[in-house]
Amino acid sequence: MNENHSDNQIGRARVQDSPELQAYYKELETLGAGALWTVANDIEPWEPRSSSVPMLWQYDKLRDLVLQSSELVTPEQAGRRVVYLVNDKRKDVSAAVGWLYTGIQVTRPGESTSAHKHKASALRFIMEGEGGYTVVDGNKITFEVNDFVITPNSTWHEHGVAENGKTCIWQDGLDIPLVNALEANDYAVFDGKQPLENPINYSPITYGGSAGLLPSDQKWNKPYSPLFKYAWKSVYPALVETSKIKEFSPFDGILMHYSNPLTGGHVMQTMGASMQLLPIGFKGKAHKHTGSFVYQCAKGSGYSIINGVRFNWKERDIFCVPSWAWHEHHNNSETEDACLFSFNDLPVIEKLGLFQDKIYTENNGHQIVKL
Description:
Structural class: alpha+beta
Shape: globular
Low-confidence stretches: none
Number of helices: 8
Strand content: 25-35%
């Protein structure tokens, strides 16, 4: 493979402009056409190119404004009472990074949202509160802090907090920008409340709470995970135990994917999610890959260097890593491990054969931080 990335070589567009060509181009425009060589080098870059920029959203600066939204509008008025996080370069499509959306939703005790569904897939990562629940296709599921919940595309879903609970805040993640870009999204509202089809927590008990056992009488033919909640009380100990026996990735420490228990694959067709543990004092090396990522610090503190810029994060902060951006993660504590939740568009990237990665080899694998 030719590693010379100069456009001044055979195989790249190198046509010199002229009055005759300018007139030719204008005539093509009148017919809704154009000459490929005028745009070829731009639409076929030498390497993947992201329209997004790395960003960090600090939770302690956003939290009061998130809570204030619950005083200004009701769930019925807002449909979904969410403060969404938008990338400086993706405002036109309301995306946090790439074709992924994220926001922070708040629900008070006794409140609930109306049931609805859409072609976009959705996920939740619980940040604060007690007594919260979701109902997915008639399955009511309670959740706690750091639990991960999915509401796959075209499933009826609603959320709420019990009367005796405490105000709940969670991060939403959706592929709305992607599905809109494909011109395939829709939205529907359920007439009334969903009737419950199974006992409370049927899904996590059936598919996630049986020590790896699956009931022999269960039949599941959906393209997403039947396990709608992944509990932190099981996830964190699994990370800790794995860290005792497994060699750390030089890039990600202990990285584990939330998976469909029936297939071992991603939880949904268009979005995947992971939890990783950065051991005490971990200094990750840099790499880059295709696929857009949104992170939330679930435990501890540290920093990430993304394309040469340092972003300091602590518990509940959210940040993004654009596709093909150099990145490395560091735990700056000498006494406590750190955990990062993330969601991504890898299911799409992988299914389309678009995944590639590259390791940073200079400076012993660590980027030089730009001042």
